[in-house]
Amino acid sequence: MFLTCKQVSNHLSKEDYAKLSPFRKFTLKFHVLICPICGKYNKQVMKFQDLARNFRKKQEDYLEDDRPESPHLNEESKKRMAELIDQDKSS
Amino acid sequence: MPETEDPHVKYETHLWVEKYGDYLYRFALMRLKDPQVAEDTVQETFLAALKNLHQFDGRVDVKYWLRGILRNKSVDYVRKSVRRKELQDEQVQEVVGQLLFKTSGIPTSRPKDWAFDPDAAFAQEEFWEAFKGCLDALPDQSRLAFHLKMVDEIPTEEICKELDISDNYLWVTLHRARAQLKTCLESKWSAA
Known about the structure:
Chain A is mainly α. Chain A is built from 4 helices and no strands.
């Protein structure tokens, strides 16, 4: 019935919540709710997920950002790649 | 559009480099860090796409189709470049979770809070640079594991298969990536 903190942190760091049985979900939730240490650890894992979500959004902007200071392929490489594509087309 | 149309014409392959080259290059650079490796991977992506052009059904944008191929090519590169390491059970025990445990399964230390709020931090332009720098400092495999799991949200089983690593190895890698990012961000950002 009761999970140890070790089992709880295992589940939390693996982020496998969706895969757990309803009973396991309940005991996990209950433990996180009443245990200050696991509660804190849970918050940390969630913070990291927030961070990744924010990163994902920001990365899209970065990839699309065509200002001169953002990374570009050099012209020579572009020319080479365009030629390779052209060769393939005519083959 | 007629069935017989040349896919090169239909999907405008002659414009690919101009339209998507830089976008794909930045995507590769985020994951692979090394500019030369990133460039080679982009080139391989174009060639692989041409080879499979007849299979492309146009249901997604060409850009995202190319990006998907590039993602797989990055995985291939990292899988080949990282020597396969087997993980001992003790090492898994040592790092799973961020807490140390007594034999009874009770934690011996409290996890430390983040020194800053990630949500608020991302609103600032400089934080992006700091984050990118910290990601670049990670080993190739950890960086890619972070991208696949946290950014692309690929299921665990698939990541393990693609990178040819065990479940436990992935968790340890991700755990280390998380811990390293946290430490790096805190030193770069809290000091600012």
